[in-house]
Design brief:
Distance between the termini: 74 Å
Radius of gyration: 23 Å
Strand order of the largest sheet: 1-2-3-5-4
Number of strands: 8
Order of helices and strands: HEEHEHEEHHEEHHHHHHEH
Number of helices: 12
Strand content: 5-15%
Largest sheet: 5 strands, mixed
Length: 321
């Protein structure tokens, strides 16, 4: 066989190998994105929603803002308070986590009481939920700002198709279940990232049952309870690691990079070092009374009112941003 022909065959073979390798990585990346999108779609997708909530005779009042439409039976004053919170929280989140683009207004259904919410809801939820199809939030008035903040974060992740690991699907939104702050020059400044007291109690029960603090490797592989995932998310936030981890996760290009490696990069610590820090943080949290004494979420009208409120509660770790 002529040398030239041999060379051509070798080159052709190498080209085929290269094309196959590229196709393999494209397929893996495609599968990863779809798996993540599926994980992000674990919110309610009940097709019968229109036959329940839309038939409620009470949700006849509509109030609108730039990005939200409230359907409700609560009074105008309270509805406008919620609209101000929704817009303010959207701005706070965009400044501190990732940008929310304008893709139409989100429908939000707010019942005036828990009984009506339970009667018409289509998801197994005590407080409220985000529905993927159609894209809506359903809750009731007394569920509070923390519940709506939680569900809004689900809507942000879905709307922006933001890549979030499985363990953070609930851990991330739950970081906002306690939110405190005030309005200033049309913006909301807020403190978030607190462990929810009832979640913390459940977390302590998990520790008591197992005899040890949940291991990080189990948490990031989605092998722990939702309450533990929320507490660990709060640990990352309060330790200053959360945003870098979020960015590295969302921009990850190496489909074979483990969650553990990404977390190590974000924190600058080995898993053993981070484990030690995590356990110390949990022990300090157990010794503190601040979490058990956390009040309900509240956003004051201005800084002066907030400082007065803060002084009464003595919530030392709250510095709105």
């Amino acid at each position: 066989m002529p040398t030239t022909l041999k060379v051509k065959i070798v080159i052709a073979g190498l080209f085929i190998i290269l094309i196959s390798a590229v196709a393999f990585f494209v397929i893996i990346a495609f599968l990863r994105v779809n798996i993540l999108q599926t994980a992000q779609s674990t919110r309610t997708t009940n097709p019968n929603l229109k036959q329940t909530i839309y038939q409620s005779p009470s949700l006849k009042n509509t109030y609108e803002s730039a990005n939200y439409i409230i359907n409700t039976d609560i009074g105008e004053s309270k509805a406008k308070t919620y609209l101000e919170f929704f817009e303010g929280f959207r701005g706070y989140f965009s400044r501190n986590f990732f940008t929310i683009s304008n893709k139409g207004r989100l429908q939000i259904y707010i019942f005036s009481n828990l009984n009506d919410f339970n009667k018409f809801k289509t998801a197994d939820s005590e407080y409220g939920y985000y529905n993927l199809q159609p894209k809506e939030i359903i809750s009731y008035s007394d569920a509070g700002f923390g519940t709506f903040a939680h569900e809004l974060v689900h809507s942000f992740i879905d709307q922006e198709n933001y890549r979030v690991p499985d363990w953070l699907q609930e851990g991330f939104p739950a970081m906002f279940e306690k939110i405190y702050g005030y309005y200033e020059s049309g913006k909301m400044l807020a403190c978030t990232g607190y462990p929810n007291p009832w979640r913390f109690e459940e977390f302590k029960k998990d520790i008591a049952a197992s005899g040890s603090t949940p291991k990080i490797i189990d948490i990031i592989h989605h092998q722990s309870s939702k309450d533990t995932e929320q507490i660990f998310a709060s640990f990352l936030w309060q330790s200053g690691y959360f945003n870098k981890y979020l960015i590295l996760t969302a921009s990850k290009r190496n489909v074979f990079e483990s969650e553990e490696t990404t977390l190590n990069k974000a924190t600058g610590l080995t898993t053993d070092q981070l484990e030690k820090s995590w356990k110390g943080w949990v022990n300090n949290l157990n010794a503190s009374q601040e979490i058990s004494n956390l009040p309900g979420s509240a956003i004051q009208s201005n800084k002066q009112e907030f400082n007065k409120w803060l002084g009464i509660l003595r919530l030392r770790s709250c510095v709105p941003i």
